[in-house]
């Protein structure tokens, strides 16, 4: 059976950290939280996201505060993200992986109805056997979504020969929960120092991630 890659989107294939930071700072401002630099954000960020806000507030946000934060974030992100592009080298890696006879799919915690048009805008939909985004409330974890994603792919993929490439510890935890491999990329939401304790390979480029994925699931 072929090796299958499940790609994360935000912070991995889609280089959107500047938009994420701007949107996060807009959300913080609604509750009087001081803005963060990109480095500070990457050092503090955590999934599930309510725990990230708890770290900054010193307490969990109330339900009303969570709605305020979430709405402010997404409103600003939708304004800023169109200026973002694919991560350097991503298009060539997608093409080469498919041409080598392997398969790949895309799984994101970004809202599905917003994800699909963005992926189509970049002209890369044809590289994926399946594209799934979030269908429920924001702020959750990826494990359940990955399980559904692989179930939908069915016999086309074997979890033991599947590698999730993402930028967050939550990506690795999701992969491990279904018996898949994971490679984490340092160019997104987490610093290397926050990724390494998870215990999966950590790389500084998507090219390294793909090369390692091919060896991990061989």
From TrEMBL:
One of its GO terms (biological process) is DNA repair. One of its GO terms (cellular component) is cytosol. InterPro entries: HAD-like_hydrolase_sf, HAD-like_sf, HAD_sf, PGP-like_dom2. Pfam families: Hydrolase_like (PF13242). One of its GO terms (molecular function) is phosphoglycolate phosphatase activity. This is Phosphatase. The lineage of its organism: Bacteria, Bacillati, Actinomycetota, Actinomycetes, Kitasatosporales.
């Amino acid at each position: 059976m072929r090796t299958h890659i499940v790609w994360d989107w935000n912070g991995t294939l889609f280089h959107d950290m500047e938009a994420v930071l701007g949107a996060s700072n807009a959300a913080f401002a609604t509750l009087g939280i001081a803005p963060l630099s990109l480095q500070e954000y990457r050092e503090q960020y955590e999934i599930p996201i309510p725990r990230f806000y708890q770290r900054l507030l010193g307490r969990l946000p109330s339900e009303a505060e969570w709605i305020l934060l979430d709405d402010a974030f997404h409103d600003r992100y939708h304004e800023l993200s169109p200026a973002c592009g694919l991560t350097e080298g991503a298009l060539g890696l997608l093409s080469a992986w498919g041409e080598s006879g392997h398969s790949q799919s895309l799984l994101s915690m970004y809202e599905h109805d917003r994800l699909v048009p963005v992926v189509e805008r970049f002209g890369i939909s044809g590289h994926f056997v399946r594209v799934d985004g979030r269908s429920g409330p924001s702020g959750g974890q990826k494990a359940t979504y990955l399980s559904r994603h692989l179930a939908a792919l069915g016999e086309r993929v074997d979890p033991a020969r599947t590698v999730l490439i993402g930028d967050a510890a939550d990506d690795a935890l999701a992969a491990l929960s279904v018996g898949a491999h994971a490679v984490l990329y340092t160019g997104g939401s987490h610093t290397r120092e926050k990724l390494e304790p998870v215990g999966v390979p950590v790389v500084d480029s998507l090219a390294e991630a793909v090369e390692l994925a091919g060896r991990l699931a061989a």
